[in-house]
Amino acid sequence: MKGASIYKSPAGEKAIKDHYNSVLANWPVPKDELSVPTRHGRTFIIACGDETAPPLILLHGSGSNT
């Protein structure tokens, strides 16, 4: 199933990505967008906040979107 799309249509993919990008453009604090290699492929990360504070990792409940 590798390479299968999570989207039902190209229009649906565009709508979700457009909404995601608009939310990300209004992120309330400065952020870094990172792509980190893992044993399962690259993982997208949004890093923000006080770099001297202990790290906090938030995981979403879906297997497809940040």
SSE topology:
Elements: H1 10-25, E1 31-38, E2 41-48
Antiparallel strand pairs: 1-2
In short:
This protein has a domain at 29-60. It is built from one helix and two strands; from the N terminus they run αββ. A two-stranded antiparallel sheet has the order 1-2.
How much helix, percentage-wise, in residues? 10-25%
Strand content: 15-25%
Pick out the low-confidence regions.
none
Strand order of the largest sheet: 1-2
Order of helices and strands: HEE
Number of strands: 2
User: What Rg do the Cα atoms give?
Assistant: 14 Å
**End-to-end span in angstroms?**
21 Å
Largest sheet: 2 strands, antiparallel
Alpha-beta classification: alpha+beta
| Helical run tally | 1
Estimate the global geometry from the Cα principal axes: extended
What is the mean pLDDT?
A: 86
In words, what does this structure look like?
There is one protein chain. With 66 residues, the protein is of the alpha+beta class. The protein has a domain at 29-60. Helix content is 24%, strand content 24%. It has one helix at residues 10-25, and strands at 31-38, 41-48. A two-stranded antiparallel ribbon has the order 1-2. The two termini are 21 Å apart. The model has no long low-confidence stretch (mean pLDDT 86).
